[in-house]
Specification:
Helices cover 48% and strands 9% of the residues. The strands form 3 sheets. The chain has a two-stranded antiparallel ribbon with strand order 1-2. Strands 3-4 form a two-stranded antiparallel ribbon. It has a two-stranded antiparallel ribbon with strand order 5-6. It is mostly helical and 310 residues long.
Length: 310
């Protein structure tokens, strides 16, 4: 932008004045203050520890926010516009991200930006819309697969073997099992306080899950607290490769949680109880296993048979 400045009593000299814009935001108490430019990495540094507990989920979120920061054409902003959000989604699609993956990354971004908006770090927020996800195939282990995999893991580490027994019979997430403390165990029940949903839950123990805990060293803070997550994952993948599952991308430690849920549904446990056991926030998440309750449809056959023979 150019403005005319006086020179020798006249206005015949022009100088360049830089363009700029200033945004203001009302924070709590209706205090008006200037909103300065920031970026996603900076916001995560300010609020990451407040919004997410340490563990595998926070590790994933850290990577998500870092990736989104790098994808932005202009990383610094005071207003996160709808156009910026749409561009991010488009770029993730070009990278081959599925709608489910995009939704996970957008959930992290939305949570961070909502906190930043509340604290007055950004001027306005875009509208987040959940992408439609396809119903994917849920992988779970049958008895023979479990025996083969666990046997291979046991050959490497008795502790890892007992940890797997606990996970498959409790349906716990990996981080929940690692964060379990001795004080969380009472009369053959365990309480998971640090969960992905932020809600604690208690579940009873099977005999072998209880035995897996009882055999642990009480000098540590919890039955599985001495396990290093990365080393466990390496041992898992080595065992998986050894039994011929190297190309099966779904056979990851989380498959033990799927296996627990699948066995409950196949055994006739109603979907609401399965939701409570797993600690799902919504019934929609648990409904992924509902198709396994095929025995519930067996009673339909006699009715159709009678109708057909009239």
């Amino acid at each position: 932008m150019q403005v005319e400045m006086p020179a020798g009593g006249g206005f015949d000299t022009f100088v360049e004045v830089p363009r700029y814009s200033v945004h203001y935001h009302y924070s709590q108490g209706n205090i008006l203050h200037e909103v300065r430019e920031t970026n996603l990495r900076e916001l995560f540094g300010k609020y990451g520890d407040l919004l997410w507990m340490n563990g595998s989920h926070k590790y994933n979120v850290t990577n998500f926010i870092g990736e989104l920061h790098d994808l932005l054409d202009f990383p610094s902003f005071s207003t996160f516009s709808q156009e910026m959000l749409d561009q991010l989604i488009g770029k993730m699609r070009k990278r081959g991200n599925s709608n489910a993956t995009i939704n996970r990354k957008m959930a992290a971004l939305s949570k961070l930006l909502r906190k930043a908006y509340k604290m007055g770090d950004v001027h306005s927020l875009p509208e987040f819309k959940r992408q439609k996800e396809k119903a994917g195939r849920i992988r779970f282990l049958d008895r023979d697969e479990e025996d083969a995999l666990f046997s291979e893991i046991r050959a490497h580490s008795e502790l890892y073997y007992r940890f797997c027994l606990f996970l498959v019979d409790s349906g716990a997430r990996l981080s929940e099992g690692l964060n379990l403390r001795w004080g969380d165990i009472h009369k053959h029940r365990v309480t998971f306080w640090v969960t992905k949903s932020g809600r604690s839950r208690s579940v009873p123990l099977t005999q072998r899950a209880a035995a897996a805990i009882e055999a642990s060293d009480r000098r540590h803070s919890g039955p599985f607290a001495e396990i290093d997550q990365q080393r466990f994952r390496i041992a898992w993948h080595n065992a998986k490769d050894a039994i011929g599952f190297a190309d099966d991308k779904d056979v990851v430690p989380h498959v033990l949680r799927h296996t627990c849920a699948s066995r409950l549904v196949q055994g006739g446990i109603d979907i609401r109880r399965v939701q409570m056991w797993l600690g799902h926030q919504t019934l929609t998440m648990t409904m992924r296993y509902a198709h396994l309750a095929s025995h519930d449809l067996d009673m339909c056959v006699p009715i159709l048979e009678r109708a057909a023979t009239g």
